Every structure is written in C-alpha cells, then in structure tokens.
C-alpha cells in the first residue's frame, strides 16, 4: 500500500537532500583535490590551480616514493602503529572489564564508583600535575607514556556501562544457576552480546591514539620515538619538509613541497579511513544503545 506524501514533505526531503549534498561537497572536494595533488607532477599541480582540474594532467607516485624512502617517516609510522595497536587493545580490555563491573547494580558502593567516573568528566588535575606524575613514575621519554595515562576514558566507560545495563539480568541468573562464575559469564555471555559496544570502544580508541600528537610533544624527546602525527605537524606548521626528505625540493623537478605534503597527509590518514567503513554499523548501534540505556 502506497503512502501519499504531502507537498510539504516532498519539499522537506528535497531541501534535506540538497543541504546534505552541499555539505558532502564542501567536505569531500578539498580531500579529492589534495589526493589529486599527491598523485600529480609539479606541472599538473600548477595547471590544476589555474584550470580547476579535478584529475591530474600527468600521474606520478614520486611524492609517495619520496615520503616512504625517508627513515624518519618509517620510524614515526612504526611508533604510531605500536601505540595504536597496543593502546587500542589495552583501552578496550580495561574499559569493557570496568564497564561490566560497574554495571552490576548489586555491587557495593556502585553510586560512589559511578560518581567518581563522572567527576573526572568535569574536573582533572591539569597538564602540569599530569606531566609531573608521568615523570615521577619513570614513563617520561617512553612509548608507554602515550598509552598508560589515557588507558580509560570516562565518557567511553559510561557508554559501555550503559550498554551492558541493557543486557537482561535473566541471562546472568540462568548462568549462575548452571554454576558459572563472573569470568565465565563475561566471556561466554556478555562479550558475545556486546560486539557493538566493543567495536565502538575499539574504534574510538584507535582514532584517539592514531590522531594524538600533543602528549608525544610533551612526554617524548627521543626522535626515534616520535609519532607520525607529530611529524606531520612539524612538516605542515614548522616548514620542515626539506629536512624530512632525502631530496632537495628546490632542484628536484619530480616533486614539490606541495605534492610531498599531500602524500604525507594521505599516508597518515589512510589506515583510519580504511578501518571505519568496516566498523561503522557496530559503531552506530553501540553509541545509540549505550547513550539511551541505563
């Protein structure tokens, strides 16, 4: 049975579609032009600027070869991969375990524990006390200084806790009758039902670790432990592109500073852009349920 739609509803949909298309164009066109620059020769970049070309006049991967051949970039990439993989695994493990614990209504002092978590959303020690704490425990100039201080995020913990509130208590009660303990219930019942929130926590953790650079700027001074985003910041903001490459950009006609910058940007955002579509359905479901339950 077809549903008749009023003229106002059709107009509303048309306006929504138009606005969304314009917003998408504003977001995607700069990325596309930057991608075109990264695969362009210096001559085609010059032509695009004056002819508004959306495809390279001449294709070239020299900029990517220039970026990938530099050892400093390879080291920064490896450090970022270590931080992202290890940090995300630890973030997810600790967050899910803590969320399961504080989602138990029978837990003594449950309101006090929840208040302490919420309190950190509004108040924290500040930058200087955090730096002094990291230094006092011997983590300064260590890769672990980028992982341990951000092991659990209060907002993510509350979202995961609220999600687990939505799991019926009858499932756990049945498991208790069958002789299961807390670890068995968590492993065999809670985790399989919590795939959406696990994917959400993991995605948030991966994005946070991959994009973070400020803590590396503060806690790490060893150039062999620099992360990719901090290196990218120096390239873009401090005009250190020539020191990051093995070629003289003023004399080499195969690449320019703009093409190398564009290639480095896409190398730095590539893994997260590739990862997100696979986790999107779990991400949306986890956020919706975790936000409204509890």
Distance between the termini: 38 Å
Q: List low-confidence stretches.
A: 245-252
What is the total tally of β strands? 0
CATH superfamily of the largest domain: MetI-like
Indicate the structural class. mainly alpha
Mean pLDDT: 81
H/E series, N to C?
HHHHHHHHHHHHH
Q: Can you name the CATH architecture of the largest domain?
A: Orthogonal Bundle
Provide a count of the helices.
13
Would you state the CATH class of the largest domain? Mainly Alpha
In percent terms, what proportion of residues is strand?
Answer: under 5%
Q: What is the total domain count?
A: 2
User: How would a crystallographer describe the biggest sheet?
Assistant: none
**Secondary structure: helix percent:** over 70%
Which term fits the overall shape?
globular
Brief summary:
The protein is mainly α.
Structural account:
With 294 residues, the chain is an all-alpha fold. It folds into 2 domains: 7-60, no CATH class; 65-292, MetI-like (MetI-like fold). It contains 13 helices and no strands. The protein starts with 6 loop residues before the first helix and ends with a helix.
Features:
294 residues; mainly alpha; MetI-like fold; 2 domains
Secondary-structure topology with pairs:
Elements: H1 7-38, H2 42-51, H3 62-68, H4 71-102, H5 110-122, H6 127-136, H7 154-165, H8 169-177, H9 182-193, H10 195-211, H11 214-219, H12 228-237, H13 257-292
Helix pairs in contact: 1-13, 3-13, 4-7, 4-10, 5-7, 7-10, 7-13, 10-13, 12-13
